[in-house]
Design brief:
The chain has 193 residues and is an alpha+beta fold. The protein folds into two domains: 2-46 and 61-85, no CATH class; 92-184, 2-Layer Sandwich (Alpha-Beta Plaits), CATH 3.30.70. It is built from five helices and five strands. It has a three-stranded mixed sheet, covered by helices on one side. The protein has a two-stranded antiparallel ribbon with strand order 1-2. Helix 4 packs antiparallel against helix 5 (152-171). The longest helix is centred in the N-terminal third of the chain and has 28 residues, at 2-29. The radius of gyration is 28 Å and the shape is elongated.
Amino acid sequence: MRRGRVNRVLLGLVGLLLLAVGGAVLAVGLGAPPPHRWIHSGPHDVLLSRAERTHWRDAGWWWPAVIAALALLVLLALWWLTAILRRRRLTEVLVDTGDGEGALLRGRSLESALTADAARRPGVAHIETLLTGRRTAPAVRARLRLEPEADPGTALTDFTAQALTHARESAGLASLPAEVRLRAVKHRAERVS
């Protein structure tokens, strides 16, 4: 979750920087006075002078390499954008009602029911669940924080045999695969007297 936030913030900063530079270039091109220490002196100035454009004229590889590098940069930026904006959370689950139609169950409802059921189990201090996959084949990602005295094996067995089974049966799913990560809650050392 933290990585997604960092990616969105970084993408927003890059977008704002490109928007500011592009807006400044457009403003100078339309006749606004250029900012201090600007790379262009006015609206009739060019990005590359004639000498700079013709410097690599004899090297036939130069301009195709520049264009290919810029195209690759644009494709990487678009790939990054789609990876950031793609939804990782499943919004709805298709439940078989037996009449051939089916019903839609909100993904957040199933997540909250699973979280509430698992949080009541002994030894579980906190739980976060995320429903992923397709609406016909959902999967669960769960992070369990265990109390210091809790046995991880017992907590995992309770989660899969109780909470996960209840969620799977109540939604009428044939299977509900889960990826569970266990972590102990940090606590102070106990004093022995």
